[in-house]
Amino acid sequence: MTLESIRYRAGSLQILNQLLLPHQTTYEEIRSVQDAYEAIKSMKVRGAPAIAIVGCLSLAVELRAGAGGDDPVTFIRESLCHLTSARPTAVNMGRAARELMEFAENESMEKNSEQLRESVISWIEDMLERDVNDNKKIGNYGAQHILSGVPRDSVTILTHCNTGSLATAGYGTALGVVRSLHTLGRLKRVYCTETRPYNQGSRLTAYEAVAEGIPATLITDSMAALTMREMNITAVVVGADRVVANGDTANKVGTYQLAISAKHHGIPFYVAAPSTSCDLSLESGRDIIIEVRPPEELTSINGIPIAAPGIEVWNPAFDVTPHQLITGGIITELGVFLPSELQAALTGRLTAL
Ligand SMILES: CSC[C@H]1O[C@H](OP(=O)(O)O)[C@H](O)[C@@H]1O
Q1: I need a surface site. Which of 1, 2, 161, 265 has the fewest CB within 10 A?
Q2: CA pair distance 98, 83, nearest whole angstrom
Q3: Of 35, 131, 241, 248, which one is the catalytic site residue?
Q4: Residues within 6 Å of ligand 1 by CB
């Protein structure tokens, strides 16, 4: 059973409010682009692929209700620009916006407003189906690559944040690799970090693993290096919010130090991400904008203060792992590539951002 973070049918969209997990399973209606913007900004829905999916589906819901009137192109452009501004580091929403806008402008040359709305809705629904299919390929490619490198019957993985059904179109990226290993009967255990301050690991990844009977152990972020030394970790597999041309990768804060520790312990470090999380328009990680989130997300949990009042806070939501530390490879729906191979592998698959 994979958890449904998103429920969509023509004209209707609901999201699982991830701020309430694991204690409450509550779905909320998304009736407009603004509803989606607020859900993404507040992280009721999160995860680079899921952000793009919810953003675009909210547009489809409004278009089905006739939004944009006689000028749907302007409505579409303004909506996509607004949605892209919600969270700046993950590239998926910006990529989808760029590609959808190009499509809509081309279609508007030969279609009336009603036909254009239908055509754009179909484009969005096709994108959802493609993302679902791509996720499964990532899981399978990643599992095969990791298994090819180990003589042992089963493997132990360490992962960070949440990259499963709650962050994607369903199967997951890094957690999709774990799912594939588990389905193959080759997963001994996955260690998941709690991932402060939003606790994607303890609240979301642990929730998915327990729901599916995946053998998982929760650790604090500070236990990761000791776990790599003591627990015979086969590979570290994480997700991505933006992989750039040289393979540098922005991902949940804490990923960089995991990569350093993996290097020290001689453990292969993998990034799992669809090609839609890649941005070849940026040369290196220095060019990636890192979202800084509100201090309260670090100084309190469920509204309960856990830090000294008045303390200064720095709360970057992501950090950048240099490509030199991504020693296992970048796992995509097209295969597993070394960072140095990525640009060639993706050129032609990706439209320029
Ligand atoms: C496949 S999800 C990718 C990525 O998104 C997460 O960030 P957030 O929870 O802030 O949206 C995390 O960095 C995952 O690795």
Answers
A1: 1
A2: 12
A3: 241
A4: 46-49, 161, 163, 167-168, 173, 200, 239, 241, 251-252, 317
